[in-house]
Design goal:
Layout: E1 13-18, H1 23-33, E2 46-50, H2 53-64, E3 74-76, H3 82-90, E4 92-97, H4 102-105, H5 107-116, E5 119-122, H6 127-144, E6 147-149, H7 157-167, E7 175-187, E8 193-194, H8 195-206, H9 208-217, E9 237-240, E10 245-249, H10 254-267, H11 279-290, E11 296-303, H12 306-322, H13 326-334, H14 336-339, E12 344-345, H15 351-356, E13 357-368, H16 371-374, E14 383-392, H17 394-412, E15 421-423, H18 425-429, H19 434-440, E16 444-452
Parallel strand pairs: 1-2, 1-4, 2-3, 4-5, 5-6, 6-15, 7-11, 8-12
Antiparallel strand pairs: 7-13, 9-10, 10-11, 13-14, 14-16
Helix pairs in contact: 1-2, 1-17, 3-5, 5-6, 6-9, 7-10, 12-13
Length: 455
Amino acid sequence: MAAKTDGNPNAPFDLIILGASGFTGKYVVREALKFLNTPSSPLKAIALAGRNSAKLTQTLQWATRSNNPPPIPILPADTTDPPSLRRLCTQTKLILNCVGPFRLYGEPVVAACAETGCDYLDICGEPEFMERIEAKYHDKATETGSLVISACGFDSIPAELGLMFNSRQWVAPSVLNQVEAYLSLESEKRIVGNFGTFESAVLGVANAKQLQELRRSRPRRARPVIPGPPPSKGPTIEHQKKVGLWAVRLPSADSIVVRRTLAALTENPHGLPGSNESAEMVEKRAAFWSSLRPAHFGVKIGSKSLLGIFRFIAVGLFFGLFGSNAFGRWLLLKFPSVFSLGWFRKKGPSEEEVESATFKMWFVGHGFSNENLASQGNSKPDMEIITRVMGPEIGYLTTPIILIQCALILLSQRENLPKGGSFPPGIVFGPTNLQERLQQNGISFDVISKSTLSS
């Protein structure tokens, strides 16, 4: 059994960005540099790590818009070389992993962090990877004091905090039953995604069977008690007039991550205790979670036109038809622009396309004005609260903002967070000031309307 390490508080670096030369990684570097050695920031020393030092130097030049970037160390590391990853972990308090797809490259990094007690954050949106590393490394991470948190980007913090924000608007005696999130991607130019995101989605389809097998092999998680009857599935294509969108169900990681957080909350009604938290934080954490109402949750992708919805459906059909066999996956990955109808391309979006894009995520909550109504089996929700999360382009602007703010919280409030273990982000960051930090950095949370529904 490995000795208990409790991380490396005297490490020379506060964080190391692994995979910084990738398309998303370079934007993470740029965001991190905004907080390096600034007043009140815990970020005093960072390093970049990867296989190719020349590319990492180019990343620094791009992020600083200078041919003479600041002297930030560049460290050798390779996901196929576990000793190099362990060396990395001994030099830092925190690893930010930007090397995807995580199904292919993520596990060795988690294994090194869990073994050495180093904390770990990533921007993964792959449910099979997240649940597999929880199953394999939670106990080891708990033992060594390594806090392992996936999905600290657009997947799936806006969904987690957005649900919590909507839920906290429901004040007794009203109770929440269901929240449906509607994602709208907008741009003055064209919306283009990175190939790595496309590749992760293809692998997600390929690994769907392994995910189901993994879930069957593990004990069933606790399910939250939600007032009122479960909602009906509804139409395949929905016209949500109140947010001005046509919408279809989005098979993303968001709803899965939210369910994992709600299961963890059901098992720990006052949240997860911090490693050395103050009495004030204990009280704050308990008050936060007692104000939150669990709900049935789902995510839909929206478009202002019905034609846009048919485009989403066509791409979904391509994934379903080709993603389950090796030759089909080869075709998808060989010709991403063709099978995504232009949404993804191997070289990714231009800087202009990134800067022009935004997202809006509407949360339509349905519930009962009085808890007594919810207990009547034949009653329908009579109350609706609509909230919205809004911000810049999702993959290269919003994701780095979220990841860096999570990192800053972890570094500055470590004693208020769990000692170690593998968790979804919501159960860890929910009672912190993450929402306020995101609002200060361009991601807004707004209440749009509160209304009574006609019967």
